Amino acid sequence: MPTPQIYQLSISPAFASLSAQEKLYAHHLAKAAWNSTRIILRQVSPEATGIFDFIISLYRSCDGNWEQLAAESGVDIQDVERFLDYAATFLSNVGNYYGSGDQKFTPDVTGGCLEKLAGGSSSARKLLEEVKGPMLDALPQGLGRPGPLTQSAYYLGADCLDSAEDVAVVARVMEEQSILPENTRLRRIGADCYDIMQASITEGKPLLQTHDSNGTKIYLAKGDHKNELSHICDCLQAAIPHASSPAQTEMLQKIIDSFQTGDLEAYRASQRIWVKDKAPPVESVFGFVEPYRDPLGVRAEFEGIVGIPDPGETRILNNLASRANTLVYKLPWVDGDEDGAKGPFEKELFEPPDFSSIHSLVYCSSIIFPGINLPNYNDIRQETGYKNIIFSNRMIAESNRARGIHMVDEQEQSTFKNHRFHAYYIWVVLHEILGHGTGKFLTESSDGSLNFDQNQPPVDPLTGNPVNSWYRPGQTWTGVFNDLATTVDECRAELVGAYLIDDLDILRIFGYTAQSEVTPDDIAYNMYLQLGVDGLRGLENYDPTTKKWGQAHSRAHFSMLRHLLRDSDGLYTVLCDMENTKLTVKVDRSRVISHGKPSLGRMLLKLHIYRCTADISNCRLFYEDLSHVDEEALRWRDIVVSKKDPPLAFSQANTFLEGGDVKLKEYAPTARGIIQSWAEREIE
């Protein structure tokens, strides 16, 4: 496996700015977040928890003195270093599959070497016996639908997903019983029983229904992740006395109620409170949030995030948010001028969301995103609102990287590297606020009422005819679009950001003018060059054996490039030199706005209308064609994979109570530092 590129998520100055009460609140929330680790590990793979315990046990056997362990065990220090790289990568991804790409990684050391390292510790030896095989085996090579080459910890038991009829019945029963899927897993027991495993502290296993056609029983098995949720709730309860507002207290209590009972309606209530809690001194996110890793696209991975706002950067982002309602008029599905109606496919009023730049104190997740937009419940987003968060200390890592720079013409590489972060930052900001934040779903309520005029239904701009599909009662975005939901949603958000990247009013907010060192033209050109590079880089996360994509954003980026190659009249050129393993993407700078922007707009309009009208059939035809990897793209992939950028790993801080004070400890951005930080979290 490649050596990881390690960054420190520095938090010390931001943490020092908190009051004593706020530090206590942050500390208990941080403990709650880290206590979710075992939930995430259990959601990744059967062996992930054991590997985690093995790494920590090995650290404790030598108290972090790896040189001493190497000498005492007779293992070459270079082998130890390779194992430490594996351990740091594992801990940073919270599992043995990359958070970005879902591909398995294995240590570049032999089983014999691991046995020697564990020789002096009985607990480490025992743990190694349990996990050595799956830790070293290349298969399953990725996460996905259970099969010979891929696996999913969301679907347990032999042939869990083999019967499409049974899976559909389970989904229908859950819908009828108002059991939301995000905090569940599905387990098949024998040939005639399914357990819907629901995360909760409360235990129980009531029978929900017997499948009439074959006698299959469906149970609600409560109590999944019980121990971890108990620890999390204890920490959240300890945080409540230090909350800075009644809203925070009520929000945490609702989250606790949800984790205790498994009822996601209590969690949804907490999210409505969270959205309205503007600019808190300590921000947090807890719960089963992102469904990226579920092959069906509905069950979500847990994450725990705690952060501290950056006042200066937040002011700039809120300046943009305050103008967002005007900016919506620039999107291709919006009718009218800035004072008129926006048309049937956009909310009448785009309420300025809370938009914060925060330094993350804890980001316990399989992937640490530069920015997020939550909650993922579209009814809450449309009725109550949402929040945008940019993680400024995570963004610093991006400012020091130029991913895929070898695919840029050598004469342009220096400029590309210097301009890349400027364009990337604005792209992420627009992706979150206007990408995920816009759009109106056409829906039918349980009483048969519609949120549009049925007698004069909206005209579909793609066909010129009245719309003939919408979300029926009980249907959701993820439920209708299933495996396409997350990647199409991310693609649409990426398109919005790229489509608006040349807007002078937006760029002026961030200080880019014709007189600045990096000009608006530089930003736009770099954006389109990034679209080319990232589209090719996306092929890293395509598996030619299973013909599956392993990451929603990667599939989105490739689809965008494929559309531009077909639809922008020669704006892009991809030069492929197989003999010298060189791949170069070129963009005609003179045609970026005249040809590139209209092409992005056409793709964006299609995805938006499909999304708003629940038109999964046309969306699937369009998107699967764009994301199909043909023989030419496979040749591109061979070169991309041969020059793959090193994976990211992050060193995160810990907090400790000393007397009544909270002390912060940061760790070196090294493999040793990452392992030490996790060992000192003392995760139960």
UniProtKB/TrEMBL annotation:
Keywords: Aminopeptidase, Cytoplasm, Hydrolase, Metal-binding, Metalloprotease, Protease, Zinc. GO terms for biological process: proteolysis. Pfam families: Peptidase_M49. It is found in: Cytoplasm. Zn(2+) binds at H431, H436, E490. Its EC number is 3.4.14.4. One of its GO terms (cellular component) is cytoplasm. One of its GO terms (molecular function) is metalloexopeptidase activity. It is an enzyme of class 3 (hydrolase). Its cofactor is Zn(2+). InterPro entries: Dipeptidyl-peptase3, Peptidase_M49. The active site is at E432. Signal peptide: none annotated. Binds 1 zinc ion per subunit. Belongs to the peptidase M49 family. This is Dipeptidyl peptidase 3. It comes from Aspergillus heteromorphus CBS 117.55.
